[in-house]
């Protein structure tokens, strides 16, 4: 059976005047993430992990930030496209594990909703997606509240190698 592992990382600056979206969940907060799309760092890290595992480059190659059709687009919509790219190339997503690094806001109560958004968008069981949260104890750009970062890893396998309905 062919398996591949992918790793993704993303970071965006927190700014006034933008909405905060993580894992497809809009979060009430005084600042949002700056970016061309909705700047959802969690979903971006997941996409980069998936693209990397499949050897399909990265988020910037697939959805360039100089293209107007991606301005303010939902990152879940882009994640769906990434899932389609993988499927067409013969890959199935086995699991995704991720960590959001933010001093504030507190996000733990939104975990299941974020996991559900990612799993539904990819068409995999919710039990195959894990989202964790941590702070950097006041250190670095995430610790001082300048930005939010996310890390993700995933495992994909070649389709048809065993029962996909497990």
The total strand number stands at 7
Quickly give the structural class: alpha+beta
Number of domains: 1
Instruction: Compute the average pLDDT.
Output: 94
Instruction: Determine the N-to-C terminus distance.
Output: 16 Å
CATH homologous superfamily descriptor? 2-C-methyl-D-erythritol 2,4-cyclodiphosphate synthase
Strand content: 25-35%
Shape: globular
**Backbone CA Rg:** 15 Å
Topology record:
Blueprint (H helix, E strand, L loop, with lengths): L2 E13 L4 E3 L2 E3 L4 E2 L7 H14 L4 H4 L12 H14 L2 E11 L9 H12 L6 E6 L5 H4 L3 E12 L8
Parallel strand pairs: 5-6
Antiparallel strand pairs: 1-4, 1-7, 2-3, 5-7
Walk me through the structure.
With 166 residues, this protein is α+β, with helices and mostly antiparallel strands. It has a single domain, classed as 60s Ribosomal Protein L30, Chain: A, CATH 3.30.1330.50. The protein has 5 helices and 7 strands. It has helices at residues 41-54, 59-62, 75-88, 111-122, 140-143, and strands at residues 3-15, 20-22, 25-27, 32-33, 91-101, 129-134, 147-158. The strands form 2 sheets. The protein has a 5-stranded mixed β-sheet with strand order 4-1-7-5-6. Strands 2-3 form a two-stranded antiparallel sheet. Strand 2 (20-22) and strand 3 (25-27) form a beta hairpin. Helix 3 runs parallel beside helix 4.
Summary, kept brief:
This protein has 166 residues and is α+β, with helices and mostly antiparallel strands.
